[in-house]
Design brief:
By secondary structure, the chain is of the alpha+beta class. It contains three helices and ten strands. The protein has two domains: 39 residues; 194 residues, outer membrane protein from Thermus thermophilus HB27 (Porin), CATH 2.40.160.
Length: 241
């Protein structure tokens, strides 16, 4: 009988304390499962590189680097981008008349481009969608060459601007994603310079021709002001697993 009572007591003790012991034992295992993420072993996965191609007031080719997860729970991503865009430079006859002279001889050839540097902040709006806003700095150059007319000159300007848009990301594998991006950019007015003449928005012109002003020079060339953007690209996540 005593042996039977002792056996019952032993079973009671096991049933009473086993759950607590199981809970204590499970604690370290759960911590062990969580700790790799918190210990920073996936730091490399915070960085991505990639590129875009598309329309940005002309054919645009872009490269970028992106960083995410600056701190636990911080939602913004930061992206730095460099772009070159080919675009229509403007009116060769008007640019020649406003910046150079009144000659009309020669056959015009023209080309225009911008080099852009941008910084964006991307905020998640869903599983695959981000809205973004950022700052832009662009260098514009329009080249006008009159074959047979002995004229070859550039009209240049530099502008600061703002950008905003929406972007969707579609995974194509463990590291690579397809990106679709659309939005717009606005650039503030800036001095236009060609040959030895320049026109400023504030009226501080240098060697202006006739009674031309900044509005005339602005109309003659296609410097960026409002610029729609539609791009497709890919991103590649560096490091991590």
């Amino acid at each position: 009988m005593r042996r039977f009572v002792a056996l019952l007591n032993a079973v009671f003790l096991v049933l009473t304390f086993s759950p607590g012991e199981a809970q204590v034992d499970s604690g370290p295992s759960e911590t062990a499962q969580v700790s790799p993420d918190l210990s920073g072993t996936r730091v490399g996965s915070r960085f991505s590189v990639g590129g875009f191609v598309g329309y940005q007031d002309g054919l645009s080719l872009q490269v970028f680097g992106l960083a995410r997860d600056f701190a636990q729970g911080f939602p913004l991503r930061a992206r730095f981008r460099l772009a070159r865009t080919s675009l229509e430079p403007g009116s060769a006859p008007d640019a020649r008349r406003i910046f150079i002279n009144d000659a009309t001889n020669g056959t015009p050839r023209e080309a225009g481009s911008t080099w852009d540097f941008g910084v964006d902040g991307l905020y998640p709006m869903g599983e695959r969608t981000h809205v973004f806003g950022g700052v832009r700095h662009t260098r514009f150059k329009a080249n006008f060459k009159y074959v047979g007319g002995n004229e070859d000159f550039d009209v240049t300007s530099e502008h600061w601007g703002l950008a905003a848009g929406v972007e969707a990301e579609f995974p194509m594998g463990s590291r690579m994603s397809l990106l679709l991006s659309g939005g717009g950019e606005y650039f503030f007015s800036s001095r236009l310079t060609g040959h030895d003449t320049s026109y400023s928005p504030d009226g501080d012109h240098v060697n202006p021709r006739r009674d031309y002003g900044y509005d005339d020079a602005d109309d003659a060339v296609n410097q960026p002001v409002w610029r729609p953007v539609a791009l497709v690209g890919v991103s590649y996540r560096l490091g991590g697993s």
